[in-house]
Recover the amino acids of this structure.
């Protein structure tokens, strides 16, 4: 298709532009993938505001609103770069959720750990514990190295921002034991092939497999779910939301509050405890 070939000719320049904007490789790949999806849908038609609005409706009928807004954002960024700002469209308004339903509970977490232990999936066992005990993002797992666990805090640069990962004595001791048991003396602790850091895709795939065996809903088991679990458990031992924001690397407290929301079932249980 000619239009796809034209996009391929532009893609390299667009990637360079995004790179100079200091966006991460994952973000750049996502933006380009979303633009290519639009061009494939467009086919031989000419880009127009009407066509973009039609595409927006097409997305709404096939994806969740959060995903649709993400794709629209990618397109709008591309239109800005190409000087076609008149084609930009508004994202859908989303009501702020007051509860969460797709986050693992503490019981789910222990079931996943028990399943990994029985299946001798030790690497995933320790990855799940590390995610839950530190609240790090999956993209930050590569910063957990043999050299770094000797410190209580690790300075990292991620998502265009510098931040600190805090590590308690328990998690550092656990990781040192894992390294000793597996003969890991330097570099990445959690490795994939050729001694490189384990990929996010591999972690996702293994989590899904473990969730099936453990009988935990797959929709609740994904790397970021452990970050939410960490936030909720942290607030049980400390009511300082600003401290939690610092640990999670948030610049806005509003973002941190989203991590501490309870599920629908938890809200109902709390209501039932009211003696009125």
């Amino acid at each position: 298709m000619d239009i796809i070939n034209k996009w391929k000719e532009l893609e390299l320049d667009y990637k360079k532009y995004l790179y100079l904007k200091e966006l991460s490789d994952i973000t750049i790949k996502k933006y380009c993938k979303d633009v290519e999806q639009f061009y494939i849908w467009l086919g031989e038609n000419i880009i127009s505001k009407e066509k973009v609005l039609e595409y927006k409706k097409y997305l709404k009928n096939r994806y969740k609103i959060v995903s649709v807004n993400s794709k629209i954002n990618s397109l709008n960024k591309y239109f800005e770069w190409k000087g076609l700002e008149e084609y930009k469209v508004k994202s859908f308004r989303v009501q702020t959720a007051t509860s969460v339903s797709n986050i693992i509970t503490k019981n789910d977490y222990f079931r996943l750990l028990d399943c990994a232990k029985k299946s001798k999936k030790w690497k995933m066992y320790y990855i799940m514990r590390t995610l839950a005990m530190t609240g790090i993002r999956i993209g930050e797992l590569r910063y957990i190295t043999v050299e770094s666990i000797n410190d209580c805090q690790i300075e990292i640069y991620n998502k265009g921002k510098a931040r600190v990962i805090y590590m308690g004595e328990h998690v550092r001791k656990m990781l040192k034991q894992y390294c000793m048991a597996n003969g890991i003396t330097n570099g990445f602790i959690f490795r994939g092939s050729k001694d490189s850091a384990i990929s996010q895709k591999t972690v996702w795939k293994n989590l899904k497999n473990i969730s099936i065996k453990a009988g935990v809903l797959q929709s609740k088991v994904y790397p970021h779910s452990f970050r939410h679990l960490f936030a909720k458990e942290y607030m049980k031992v400390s009511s300082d939301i600003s401290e939690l924001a610092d640990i999670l690397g948030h610049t806005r407290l509003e973002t941190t509050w989203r991590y501490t929301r309870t599920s629908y079932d938890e809200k109902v249980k709390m209501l039932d405890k009211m003696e009125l």
